[in-house]
Design brief:
- This protein is mainly α.
- The chain has a single domain, classed as Na+/H+ antiporter like fold (Up-down Bundle).
- The chain contains 19 helices and no strands.
């Protein structure tokens, strides 16, 4: 029964966190982490994680990453690639090397430096879009560039997680053959998922699949509309592809995200029906962001057992990391938006401010690196958590302050 009492505490914290998020205009993730830290430091939650809560948290992050991939419109995403690739590439490369350099300078450890760089690569698009909506800029060209760039960064980050974590955790000798083997496994996994999305999932089969009796007659739409169990079907798919990723040696969240990306709206029943895309997405979002997904972040927050000596010692580290990422992110994204995306400087800087946030994926990487693989030391973990927290606070502040200088809805051109 103790696990159920702990779950009641976690869900109460989630409820309070959502109220605080609404009042403060910050993303709930920050409050999930904060309340988890408060509960463990006041003795309400145990220092040693409960197995049931940990397992439920793992299931939660699988569903969160699936929901993030599921909401991405593939056609909109592809249509914006041409104008956003430079923002995604340079806007991720600069923070990666900034965090890597700072971490290597502070701790002289390549594994820690790699994971710090990876943590600071992905952008919190949900926080940015909420901040842009708050000032009426969520439909601006800059918002579209930020959204596409953030998705590209997330996909690249997930691929890098698959390759870098085994290397940084020291699983075998770090050699060209070892790295090539890990990269080959990552490519093989993404190829398998791509085959699912391109040939097996479409309602009308193509090529040699038309010769298989059952497969040629039944597509994914039949499964999604069978008995109106579309929600169960997609969540099962998220879990199965997540387990497939695990069998390839990667985090299940990677597979869940890819499962969400390859599902398309046309696979579902007609609009406004039970089992439709809108109905299924509403339920998936509820599961992922309201009652199971948040368990992961609250449980991760319980890893912040306050040691005032450690906190005092990492304050200079936090200041250095925060300053480095702040300027590296804004400058790189703004220059890329100006010269590869054809935006003016006002819109380019808005893109830079919008890409400051770090949310779900950053904390997934921290969990993998600190909790599951012990790559990060305690000081690095504290530094990254605090840096991500302050970067997220800076997103709505910088966007609000910059709005008067953002001239017009058209921010393309000189």
């Amino acid at each position: 029964m103790e696990s159920l009492y702990l779950l009641a505490l976690v869900w109460a914290a989630v409820f309070i966190a959502n109220i605080l998020a609404r009042k403060t205009k910050l993303v709930p993730v920050l409050w999930f982490l904060a309340l988890g830290a408060i509960m463990v430091n006041t003795g309400l939650m145990p220092v040693e994680s409960d197995h049931f809560i940990t397992t439920l948290g793992m299931l939660g992050i699988i569903f969160i990453m699936f929901a993030l991939g599921f909401e991405e419109k593939t056609d909109h995403f592809i249509g914006s690639l041409k104008q956003s690739w430079g923002i995604a590439f340079f806007g991720a490369l600069a923070p990666f090397f900034a965090a890597y350099s700072v971490a290597h300078y502070l701790w002289h450890d390549t594994g820690i430096a790699l994971m710090c760089g990876l943590t600071m690569t992905a952008t919190a698009v949900s926080l940015t879009m909420a901040s842009l909506k708050g000032v009426g800029l969520h439909k601006s060209p800059a918002a579209k560039r930020i959204m596409t760039s953030a998705v590209l960064d997330d996909i690249a980050s997930l691929a890098l997680v698959a390759v870098i974590v085994p290397v940084a955790s020291g699983e075998g000798p770090i050699s060209f053959v070892h790295i090539a083997l890990i990269a080959g496994k990552a490519i093989a996994f993404f190829v398998v998922v791509s085959i699912l999305g391109a040939w097996l999932f479409p309602h009308k089969t193509k090529g040699w699949l038309q010769r298989i009796p059952l497969v040629r007659s039944f597509g994914i739409r039949h499964l999604l509309t069978f008995g109106r169990h579309s929600t169960l079907t997609v969540l099962l798919l998220a879990l199965l592809v997540g387990l497939l990723a695990h069998e390839f040696g990667f985090h299940p969240a990677i597979g869940a995200y890819m499962a969400g990306l390859i599902l398309k709206e046309e696979y579902f029943s007609r609009k406004d029906e039970k089992g439709s895309y809108e109905d299924t997405k509403r339920i998936v979002d509820n599961v992922a962001f309201t009652w199971i997904g948040p368990v992961f972040f609250v449980e991760l927050g319980t890893k912040l057992v306050f040691d005032w000596q450690i906190l005092a010692s990492v304050l200079p580290h936090i200041a250095l990391m925060l300053t480095s990422i702040f300027f590296a992110q804004i400058i790189s994204a703004a220059i890329a938006a100006r010269y590869t995306g054809g935006m003016n400087w006002a819109g380019s800087l808005l893109v830079g401010f919008g890409m400051l946030g770090r949310a779900e994926l950053a904390f997934v990487v921290m969990n993998i690196a600190y909790v599951q693989n012990a790559i990060l030391n305690t000081e690095a973990f504290y530094t990254l958590m605090a840096t991500a927290f302050f970067l997220n606070i800076l997103v709505p502040i910088t966007i609000t302050l910059w709005k008067p200088y953002y001239a017009a809805p058209e921010d393309a051109g000189p």
